[in-house]
C-alpha cells in the first residue's frame, strides 16, 4: 500500500502532520463538510466563513497555510488578500476556484497564491485535491509554521549587551549579544571589543538561526535541525551533509572567525548548539 494512504484508503497529510491549516469558505455547510474531509486525511484544520473571521483567527493563533475560496478572500478593497500582504506576506496560500477559467487563475496568481484548486461539488474529491496541493508545498508550509511558532513561544533571553543605539523593531529574538530581526532577515552581532555587525540572511539561514536561538543552550541533533529548521525529509548522510552545509553558510555570516565559532558550536556525535557563553 502507498505509504501516504491510511486505513480505509484515506490519504495522510504527508509532511504536514501537526501543522494547522486555515480553510476559508463562505458556505457554512460546505465549509464544515470540507473541513471534516480534510481532517480525516490527517490535517489540523481551523475554519472561517468570512474574511473578517479569518483575520481574527489568524491573529489569535498561527497557521502554516491558508486554503481559501478566491471570491471570499479577494472581495472588497480591504479584503483578506490585502490583509495577508501586510501582516503575513510569507504565508503559503492556495486559492479554490469555482471553475478553472483563465481570468480566475490570473487573479489568483496576482493575489499571490502558491497554487490553485477547483472546488468541485464532490467534497471528498475536493479534499483530496487540496491535500495534494498542500503536500506539494509542504516544505514552505512547514517552514512558515515553525517560524511562526518560534515567534509565538520564544522569549527574549537577554538583551543587556545590545547597544542602546540599535533599538529593535518588529519581531525579534535576542540571545546575549546577538539579535535576530525576523521581519527583515537581519542578524545584529554586538560582540564586546568588536565593531557592530549587521548581516543579511537568506530565509533558510534565518529559519536555522531562529531555531537555534530559540533553544539556546540546548543541543539540537542533525535530524531535529533538518526537519524543524530546514524542512528536509531525507535521512542519513544526505541529511547530515545538507545541515552541515547550511550551518557553514550561517557561520560565514555571523561568526567573527568561522573556523573558530563562538556562537554556533558543533557537539561531536550530538549536533549543534547556539550559546555565546559555550565552553568547548
Plain-language structure description:
This protein has 280 residues and is of the alpha/beta class. The protein folds into two domains: 20-152, Rossmann fold (3-Layer(aba) Sandwich), CATH 3.40.50; 172-274, Winged helix-like DNA-binding domain superfamily/Winged helix DNA-binding domain (Arc Repressor Mutant, subunit A), CATH 1.10.10.10. The protein contains ten helices and eleven strands. The strands form three sheets. The protein has a five-stranded parallel sheet, sandwiched between helices. The longest helix is centred in the C-terminal third of the chain and has 19 residues, at 236-254. The model is unreliable at 1-9 and 155-169 (pLDDT under 50).
How are the SSEs placed, and which strands pair?
Layout: E1 20-24, H1 28-40, E2 44-48, H2 51-60, E3 65-69, H3 70-74, H4 80-87, E4 93-97, H5 102-110, E5 115-118, H6 123-136, H7 138-153, E6 172-175, E7 178-181, E8 186-189, E9 197-200, H8 203-214, H9 222-229, H10 236-254, E10 264-267, E11 271-274
Parallel strand pairs: 1-2, 1-3, 3-4, 4-5
Antiparallel strand pairs: 6-7, 7-8, 8-9, 10-11
Helix pairs in contact: 1-6, 7-8, 8-10, 9-10
Q: H/E series, N to C?
A: EHEHEHHEHEHHEEEEHHHEE
Q: Into which percentage range does the β-strand content fall?
A: 15-25%
What structural class do helix, strand and pairing data support?
alpha/beta
CATH class of the largest domain: Alpha Beta
Q: What ranges have pLDDT less than 50 throughout 5 or more consecutive residues? A: 1-9, 155-169
In total, how many beta strands?
A: 11
Rg computed from alpha carbons, rounded to a whole number of angstroms:
21 Å
- Widest β-sheet, arrangement of strands: 2-1-3-4-5
Spatial gap, N to C terminus: 48 Å
Name the helicity range: 40-55%
Number of domains: 2
Instruction: Report the biggest beta sheet as strand number plus sense, adding barrel if it closes.
Output: 5 strands, parallel
Provide the CATH architecture of the largest domain.
3-Layer(aba) Sandwich
Provide the CATH superfamily of the largest domain: Response regulator
Instruction: Count up the helices.
Output: 10
Give the rounded overall mean pLDDT: 81
How would you describe the shape?
Answer: elongated
- Under CATH, the topology of the largest domain can be stated as Rossmann fold
